[in-house]
Amino acid sequence: MDLCLVLMITSFGLGMVSTHAELQRFEQPAKTDGKLSFLVLGDWGRRGDFNQSEVAHQMGRIGEKLDVDFVVSTGDNFYDDGLTGEQDKAFEESFTQIYTAKSLQKQWYSVLGNHDYRGNAEAQLSLHLRKIDSRWLCLRSFIVNAELAEIFFVDTTPFVKSYFIDAKGHTYDWRGIGNPRAYIANLIKDLKVALRESSAKWKIVVGHHSIRSIGHHGDTKELVSKLLPILKANNVDFYMNGHDHCLEHISDTESPLQFLTSGAGI
Ligand SMILES: *[C@@H]1O[C@H](CO)[C@@H](O)[C@H](O)[C@H]1NC(C)=O
């Protein structure tokens, strides 16, 4: 059985069951041949500019060739400052009207990036957007069971201390986070349980920020200390992120863990 992952390089560019842990779970049925393929991108919503439309076109082509099952977005879904609210036209102008290829009319699973937190973060989580475009599914942290692979989506922005103590003129929408230390502790606890209980052949963790990167932002030290040990201890195969706007593949020297940075574009 194959697992086919395609990371978009370039410039820019269900049935729900709740269980034990707090993390919501979604079931993504496998194809009848048992194969699984999906596209991963991050850092994209530009109303088509910065070559977002060109990347979308290429995604449509490769998506058809690989018969992708779904698309993963690693966050920074709408630039510069997320969505202003549920009615923000940027949702349609940067998503619905851009990813029009037939092969991309699949479920999209998205997390929030730091730029999304600079707008109305809760708007992106809203059911209203799913009514406008049923492909959209964005939550802070959740799990997708794709049979061959289990994918654990992690909300990494609240881990990064500098956004709280040195916001550099930006405002972040921390509604729904509460005490960030408690939020992170809780998330880590739920993730540990879910990873430990997973029997999937491939365990994949997705977040916006890199754990390891030699790109512009480099490593995210809070994730190196708090998230990395859990991934190693639970035999996670891949950690996939965006944020650094480049394509990277870094291998851990002490475990089978592979770090993949996808997406790109200012
Ligand atoms: C779009 O892509 C072209 C071709 O690769 C490149 O020359 C151009 O600089 C890109 N434009 C932007 C705004 O990134």
UniProtKB/TrEMBL annotation:
Tell me where on the tree of life, at the top rank, the source sits: Eukaryota
Residues spanning the signal sequence:
1-19
- Give the reactions, separated by semicolons, that this protein catalyses: a phosphate monoester + H2O = an alcohol + phosphate
| The keyword Metal-binding is annotated on this UniProt entry | yes
The free-text cofactor remark is:
Binds 2 iron ions per subunit.
Where is the protein situated, by its record's location annotation? Answer: Secreted
* CC annotations in GO: extracellular region
What is the top EC class of this enzyme, as a single word? hydrolase
One example of the protein's molecular function in GO is:
acid phosphatase activity
Keyword NADP (UniProt): no
Protein name as it appears in the record = acid phosphatase
Originating species = Salix viminalis (Common osier)
